[in-house]
Amino acid sequence: MEEFDKPSPPSRVNYLNAEYGVKSWLLTKDHKRIALLYLGAISFFFFIGSLYAMAIRLELLTPQGDLVQSSTYNKMFTQHGIIMVFFFLIPSIPATLGNFLIPMMIGAKDLAFPRINLLSWYIYILGGIVTIYALLAGGVDTGWTFYTPYSTTFSNTYVIATGLGIFINGFSSILTGLNFIVTIHTMRAPGMTWYRLPLFVWAHYATSLILILGTPVLAITMVLVALERLAHIGIFDPAAGGDPVLFQHLFWFYSHPAVYIMVLPGMGVISELIANFSRKNIFGYKFVAFSSLAIAVFGFLVWGHHLFVSSQSVYAGMIFSLLSFAVAIPSAIKVFNWTATLYKASISYDTPMLYALGFIGLFTIGGMTGLFLAALAVDVHLSDTYFVVAHFHYIMVGGTLLAYLGGLHYWWPKISGRMYPEGWGRFSALVVFVGFNLTFSPQFVLGYMGMPRRYHTYPADLVSWQVLHVLSTAGASILGVGLLIPLFYLVWSMRYGRIAEANPWHLPGLEWQTASPPPTENFLTTPIVTTEAYEFAPPEHKEVVGRFERQRPAEV
Amino acid sequence: MQSWFPFIPESASTISGDVDAVYFYISGVTVFFTTLISLVTIFFVIRYRRRNPFEIPRPIEGSTKLETLWSVIPLVIALSMFAWGAKVYFAQYRPPKNAMEVYVVGKQWMWKFQHSTGQREINELHVPVGRKIKLIMTTEDVIHDVFVPAFRIKADVVPGRYTTEWFEATKPGRYHLFCAEYCGMNHSGMGGWVVVMEPTEFDNWLSGNANQASPATAGQQMFESLGCVSCHGANGEGGRGPALLGVFGSQVVLNNGQTVRADEAYVRESILNPQAKIVTGFGPIMPSFQGQVTEEQLLQLVAYVKSLSTPKPETPTTKPPVATKPSGAVARP
Q1: End-to-end Cα spacing for chain A
Q2: Interface of B with A in 209-248 (CB under 8 A)
Q3: Which residues of A are less than 8 Å from B142 in CB distance?
Q4: What is the pLDDT of residues A380-411, one digit of tens each?
Q5: Alpha helices (H) along A300-420
Q6: Per-residue pLDDT tens for A12-41?
Q7: Which residues of A touch B291 (CB under 8 A)?
Q8: Which of A73, A131, A187, A520 is the most buried (most CB within 10 A)?
Q9: Which residues of chain B lie closer than 8 angstroms to A448, CB-CB?
Q10: Is A156 buried (19+), middle (13-18) or exposed (0-12) by CB count in 10 A?
């Protein structure tokens, strides 16, 4: 903190000051600059999505629809979902932190296909522009799930334009996934064996598999919706021999795995944070690594649990219920291993660790409440209620968003070359945690009480419903403040933050063994890896961690 | 309304207690484990906080024994949740015999109910307490969903299909009914009430609204006015088309050798798409009635075909006399 009043830009050449000008950014092939392009774009979309969320919460303060009309409300929740899922959550961690860190963690100079990496950003932007056009032209009101036949026959909104935006955006996901897989297979530094990979890389490998295998199904589904609207081909229209429920199968075949696209990278971040901020290798490394792959594989087999009340066969329902319980186990394994890692550790209370601890709590609640929804009889009562809304926000916001924020703080010195203000960081982590719980925990109760989701108004005779909604809206305001604080101080720190050392946290990871910010080629000489991940006091790294006392007793 | 702050909705059906029991079981287990994980985490975080900036803890590799333990125990617990949830669900979805049937048609943004005795209702459904009620549901437009929180029942209403759900109310009262599948602009307004009455009260209500033709009677009138009689016979005895007497609920042999059960969906399909499943021994001569009959009229035709197989339709009131000369006005839209 003593260096606060004397900010001086780093004199060394790094990826940020190697070139100047708009062109040097828009035509860059550097994965780190592309990560920053993504960071800017997804922050923009997150902001738009949050505005919709605030408007929704304000409307629900009262049972009557007194802020906006029903048609507007329906567009608000639809667009909140579309923006947040497709343009924030799915690209969030992979496209920013993953893009920036995967090459650095495996000791590579860049991703395998730098031009394709840039292309994927442009595709994402194009998809975003088409979607924003659809919103400005009049919006879309189908729900982010586009259920037929409402989306194909009855909605008079911009379904095709929005679908086109999502369709285009999907190719960005596919290319990013492809790039990661090829990079992880072919560009690991000498000595970087698979079992020495940081768990962040394992998680992104699993995520990339889903991106490549799942996203094409979404693309096909969007094309079918557009064809049905334009040409009435009859695939979803029962009057023409089609089946509206077929759409739900196709949609969830992608969109349930998409949940794991959103949360697996978050789990990868948390593994890094837990290990590094407790200065200890992850307990059960291989179990954590393979649980990511197990989640990716099982994730493709559980889509039918979204259809327990959709006239799906009772027996299909039972199989999907069983598989949904099974997919909970690898997630549980991760939580237990993270907790066990803390045993006899050296735990710091820095901001990233606070986010990681918050993640463990919220993700546990999110996962546990998934058990209610996997249990058939209970899901019948809960499906399409606020319980579901609360459950997936605990996973998406309590999980992914907290991991994203934790990761952003953790790697901020590497990304920007500056430290964020630690006090503000801890404070805002606390505000986010409190605000989040106040927003979404009342919604579990609301859901069991029977409040359906996507409701603009609710019965005024149910006083408890309004009480719960008021609590939730109050929480959302706190959460909003908690999210604005980091926005301000992170931007502030880019210019005024304390200059970061190469390895401010004193960690063994490869990304910390190069300058902050790194040079364009990441490493001046290709690193040679001789140790496991998270090995804190190996003799080979003595020069890095030499200041630590070595207390490692003679034990395996 | 309960005086204390409620955490669960009113429980007013025979299955709502079972659903709550599974809910409380899962709640108990998950609250216990969430608390346990949180307490252990908090304990570790305090106990093993960094006391010295230079300390390096001793690495611990992991333990296959522990991994097995914390995979198998949650798996066993999860399987118990699965089994209990599936058991209650199975009972929920197997419609009971001898239930009182009510036809439900959803449309943006209202619910139309018709009792087998003819009474029609909009956005309100009157039923007697202590009697099994089976809803046979379809929709004229998009997917809707009949959700009654107090009964813990929910089922989508899908265009082009008949879906069913059933309940038996256990105490009289007025219970909220919601559409739980997003269906467009006025989705949140597409609700209503289920009014559960004492049986005698319900009989009074029925007789007070008795001047409407039962679905089966209306269906019979449709059957005549649409010209079905010329092939299927004036009383469903058959002719150029297959006989309909006693067909509903039986196994029908098709001309490709397969058999199907003649249920609501089969009758509906045979009216809208007659070439799909032709009864053995008959030719593909029946025209489609797609677009000529509304969902409600289809349900009435189905009810008529069904009545040809049930010698004594269960009606508390006297059966309305079969109109031999119907006014043609009922038929076409």
Answers
A1: 40
A2: none
A3: 147, 149-150, 153-154
A4: 999 999 999 999 999 999 999 999 999 999 99
A5: 314-341, 351-374, 376-382, 386-393, 402-416
A6: 789 999 889 999 999 999 999 999 999 999
A7: 239
A8: A131
A9: 7-9, 23
A10: exposed
